[in-house]
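Ligand: pyridoxal-5'-phosphate. Inputs:
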Amino acid sequence: MNRVDPPQRVLLGPGPSDVAPSVLRALGAPTLGHLDPKTLEIMGELATALRAIFETQNPWTLAISGTGTSGMEATLVNLIEPGDRVLVAVHGYFGARLADIAKRVGGDVTVVEQEWGRPSDPAQLRAAAAGRKFKVLAAVHAETSTGVRQELAPLAALADELGALFVADAVTSLGCLPVGVDRARVDAVYSCSQKGLSCTSGLSPVTFSPRAVDAIKRRKQPVSSFYLDVPLLERYWHGDHLYHHTACSNLFAALHEATRLVLEEGLEARFARHARLSKALVAGLEALGLELLVPASDRLPQLLAVKIPDGVDDVKVRKALLEQYSIEIGGGLGPFKGKLWRIGLMGSGATPRNVLLALSALAAVLATSGFRARGEPIAAAGAALAS
Ligand SMILES: Cc1ncc(COP(=O)(O)O)c(C=O)c1O
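Predicted complex:
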């Protein structure tokens, strides 16, 4: 068996994003026991940092051992009891996954589909609710399959009308866009470690409002998942630290360092950096002659969905970017397979250098695919960066 030697990539896809050297060093620090006082101290500080980044006072804020999907599943399996009515806004692949899991945990699910590439419409959701009360209203804040941003506050207002708890997926938004959990009045939010927070994958930050905690405490039946039972996890994190599972101290140390970097930069500065670099990348892509799926008003800065021009082979281009330039970008999901590229500028990967690198490599690969660039992408991005 040979020693593995993973190559150095530039991760400009929908996630994971580039991991800062100090986060990788934290990951490589000595392993501690999951009940070691130092591990518990790291977890306490990590929870405080996550509250600051979620912009919440919620005591029930922790990181689940697992990827973003574990946070999605934990949120739904704790809030939904069999037969509970759940309204899910679906405008992409991850909204559909939310609806799928809500059904698997026994919810009586009403799905409201919106055309992929546009945000869900609160009026359409209200009409589908047809005056009925719901236990949960769930939506994706940053839909990674299309690059669409969903406004949270109007959905929180709708949840109030429906008597529902409002659940938001912030897997692709946390650390890139304001989630503002308390301000937007979201009751349960889950995210991931590997995108806007620029850690490796493996942890899913979650937060539950006092209303959500109350609903969990008033459940008629125990949570059907032991591993994702949030009251048990809360007890391990913030209570008497009773053993629940052998959590990974290295991941906690790495996410501790990643969140420290986020707070050192400052949330406002971080959001402004993502917005500024995204504008430069858009300027360059448009100068190349490429078209974006989502209009500027609904577009995520940190993830751009780019239409693949006619006659250009999706897989050949992504393979050339990876093999010749060591750059990863994403392909399309579901109906957009072969039709979209997804270019991410997230967390520590959102740098002026990566904007120019992505544009120059894409221009070079497209030129060999017979695509004629309309203008000068580097000059256009440079001008946007300078403005
Ligand atoms: C919006 C959204 N939700 C959920 C997930 C699932 O996260 P994971 O792949 O980390 O399990 C993803 C993954 O990209 C996502 O983009």
